[in-house]
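Batch job 17 of 40 flagged for manual review because the log was empty.
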Amino acid sequence: MFRLFCVVALVFTASFGSAAAGYLDENPDEVFESVYERIGALPVQAARDPFVWLRLQELKREPCDQKSIEDLALMLGSLGYRRQAADSLYRFVLNCGAPITALHRSIDIYLKLTDYPKAVEVADEFMRRAPSNRDAHYLRGLAMEGVKD
C-alpha cells in the first residue's frame, strides 16, 4: 500500500513539475516569437523570469493588453533591463495605438539612460498622438535640450 502511494505521489509530482517548468526549459524566442514581433526581443535571462514569462504569455493571448505591457515594462526595469522596457513600451504603442502614458514612461526611461536621440524620436510620436498634451511638449523640450537642439 505504501509503495503504491509513493508511486502515485511520484507520478503526480513529475507531471506537475513538467507543466510548471515551461519558463525554465522552453526557448522564449520560439514561444514568444509573435509577441517579440510587436514589442521587440528580450534577453533570454529576462524572459525566463517567472513574472516576465507570465506577462509574455498574456501578451501572446491578448496582443494589445495594456495592463500586461505596463507590468512587463515595470518588471524589466526592476530587473535592470531599462532599455528593453522603454523599447517595448514604444513599440507597443506603435503597434496597438495605446496607451499614451506608455510613451511618457518610455521617454522618461530614455532620458534617464541619456539616450536623447531616441527620446526625441519617442517624444515626436507623443506630440503626433497628443498635440495638446503639455507633458508631450515638456518632454520633447527636455529631449531636444539633451541633443543640444
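Reviewer: the log was empty due to a logging misconfiguration, but the result itself is present. Residues 14-19 have pLDDT under 50 and may be disordered. Unflagging and moving on to job 18.
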